[in-house]
Write a structure and sequence with these properties.
With about 260 residues, the chain is mostly helical. The chain has 12 helices and no strands.
């Protein structure tokens, strides 16, 4: 509660200072952006609309972006798409524009368009956690659809590698993110299985190289074990976490075991 109250105090200070900046420099895009962000987060729609009107009066293209963001927050998906597409025609290099349009497409079930926009947004800042989470979610859904047709064990290695790369970037910034950890438990065992199958397929490989490869795989399996344990301890009543832990071990056993 103490941290929450402290955060509210800083929130009010930010709002006050943005208003002061706007009074000293009317029409300042920086202060209007700050005020708009606060209005959106507090669901003060009338204040957000006032800021959009001010931007229209200035004939600023940012008015289309802000109106798109407002419609996105209100779950008015079609209107959001219309405004954001218009904005991006004028300002094609915009992380927030492409990421927001991806979310609007996602809400409308336009998955291919959502993926295209998410990739564009990510390309402007490869370490932006919000964009990485958006991309991770879209990649996972794409993989789920493919796995429903061919099975998880036959998922293309490129698909697995891409989402693992995305997962690793998020974990580097937010090590305890539960959603990302849950996907680690799904995709790391698949990658372990793929790596072991690759090793088995090699007819000629030095024992030293094989030992090094197996050591890396073993370390990855230990990471999976650790994540499963942390998730289960955090929520011991969640059967999904126990099942994932069991599946991770079983998949590793299947991949490693060689019948004599």
């Amino acid at each position: 509660r103490g941290e929450s109250d402290l955060a509210k105090q800083h929130w009010r200070k930010a709002e006050k200072y943005f208003e002061s900046a706007a009074q000293m420099r009317p029409g300042s895009l920086e202060s209007m952006q700050g005020q708009f962000d606060i209005a959106i987060k507090t669901q003060n729609w009338s204040r957000a609309e006032e800021i959009i009107d001010q931007l229209r009066q200035q004939k600023s293209f940012e008015s289309m972006l802000y109106e798109g963001l407002l419609n996105l927050r209100r779950k008015q998906w079609e209107e959001a798409v219309h405004q954001l597409e218009g904005y991006l025609r004028e300002r094609p290099i915009s992380l927030i524009g492409h990421a927001s349009l991806a979310r609007a497409y996602q809400a409308l079930g336009r998955w291919d368009s959502a993926m295209e926009e998410a990739r564009l947004a990510w390309s402007y800042d490869v370490n932006n956690v919000s964009t990485l989470r958006l991309l991770m979610g879209l990649l996972h859904r794409q993989n789920q659809r493919m796995a429903s047709k061919v099975g998880w064990e036959k998922l293309d290695s490129k698909r697995i590698a891409e989402i693992i790369s995305t997962i690793n970037r998020i974990i580097k910034a937010k090590p305890d993110d539960p959603d990302t950890m849950s996907l680690q438990v799904i995709y790391y065992p698949l990658w372990i299985r793929y790596q072991l199958n690759q090793l088995k397929a090699l007819s000629q490989i030095k024992l030293e190289q094989k030992a090094q490869a197996l050591e890396k795989i073993s370390k990855l399996q230990k990471i999976v074990e650790n994540i499963c344990q942390r998730l289960t301890e955090k929520n011991p009543q969640d059967v999904v976490n126990w099942l994932r832990w069991a599946q991770a071990n079983y998949q590793y056993y299947q991949a490693v075991w060689e019948p004599k």
